[in-house]
Amino acid sequence: MNKILIVDDEVALCEALEFVLEDEYEVQTLQNPSNIIRIIDAFSPDVVLLDLKIGEANGIDVLKTIKKENPNIEVIIMTAFGSIDSTVEAIKIGAFNYLIKPVKSEELKVFIKKAIEYRNLNNSFNNLRMVIEDEYSIKGVIGRSNKFVKALETIHKIKDFDSTVLILGESGTGKDVIAKALHFESPRRSHNLEIVNCAAIPSNLLESELFGYEKGAFTGADRKRIGRFELAHQGTIFLDEIGEMDLSLQAKILRVVEDMTITPIGSEKRKQINVRVIAATNRDLNELIKSGQFREDLYYRLNVIAISLPPLRERKEDISLFVKYFLDKFNKKFCKNIVGFDIEAYKHLENYYFPGNIRELENLMERIVALSDQTTIDLKLLSNYLDANYDSSKDNQNYLSMKVATPLKTLEKLMIESTLDYFNGNRGKTAAALQISERKLLYKIKEYEFS
């Protein structure tokens, strides 16, 4: 049963209101607010009915005290016609609503019901926010390997600052996880985190996505649209795969990073914004700069703080942590009870190259849990679901067999040829392992005349 505390110096009114409410609520009355915090702590009301004039006490001061000590309690003000100004002030301080005396019983019940609904909704929202912050903050990040711990240490050092961050790493290494952790560990956590995948949005649409547009700015712009930068005001924007962005748009991003202003398409007015910019890429930006595909000035603006994420094959001590996390996750999803890998299967998994990194491991675990009827994963079962192109007899020693003083072109050719052979000609996985685009890999294949 919800609890109502009535605070009024008129005993008769308190008794009347208690009579109206006692069938639906647990009610307590108070005529002297001097010890109201002690009463609230003992009674734990959901709603307080508070008179604006309680003897010599000022209801506004009492409201401030309640909201300071117990911000989640909803307060409904009771007031006479002559105190409207005070009522407006009370609403600004945080009162849920107000009732004009003499209080009507039906109106009172409706207001209390709405206040309790609002309180429950607010509590649910706060609980959800805490769950999200726990999941996406550093507490929810998985990893204990030395290379990954260095990345977490960097987050701890810069979490309270607005410095621009550039996250580097292969596809699937968790760059988005680090971006979310940076946001939810920062003072900006209560504002928006806008995530934009620059590679997933066609270049001719990316500008309007980022900056928004005015009504009539172009054919089909039948209404105004707010861009992602503006939506991220006072929060964070995460520009994922920024290495795929066109040069013309890079110039506009540079302007935003430099002076924190944007101009929506079709507008001549610049808008001031306040955002933290986090960017990420799996490309070698220095190579893109040399080839004229990425602006050097933008690179230096983004690369204030760099966080490099190691591939999963360099975080072998973390594989067991991810396996446990994904098993728990997918056992719940599919109502299964798979307990883990036997020793032989786990050793095989640990030696796998994982060109798709954590994302590939997650997909593998989901596939195994969804389709397997066994409670323990053995080598035969793992081999059924692991990449059919993987040959465990091959290992990274191929990359160490090149002699010192070998010409650079020869090294490059051998590296590409060895990696292609490692993945049985799979260009996508070869490009991911070499951290180059498939288009560049295809160019190199033609250049070196591989079959």
From TrEMBL:
4-aspartylphosphate modifications at: 51
Lineage: Bacteria, Bacillati, Bacillota, Clostridia, Peptostreptococcales
Recorded GO MF terms: ATP binding; sequence-specific DNA binding
Species assigned in the record: Acidaminobacter hydrogenoformans DSM 2784
GO biological process, one term: phosphorelay signal transduction system
Pfam family, one: Sigma54_activat
Limits of the Response regulatory domain: 3-116
Record's function text: May play the central regulatory role in sporulation. It may be an element of the effector pathway responsible for the activation of sporulation genes in response to nutritional stress. Spo0A may act in concert with spo0H (a sigma factor) to control the expression of some genes that are critical to the sporulation process.
Alphabetically ordered keywords of this record: ATP-binding, Nucleotide-binding, Phosphoprotein, Transcription, Transcription regulation
Start and end residues of each Sigma-54 factor interaction domain: 141-370
The protein, known as: Stage 0 sporulation protein A homolog
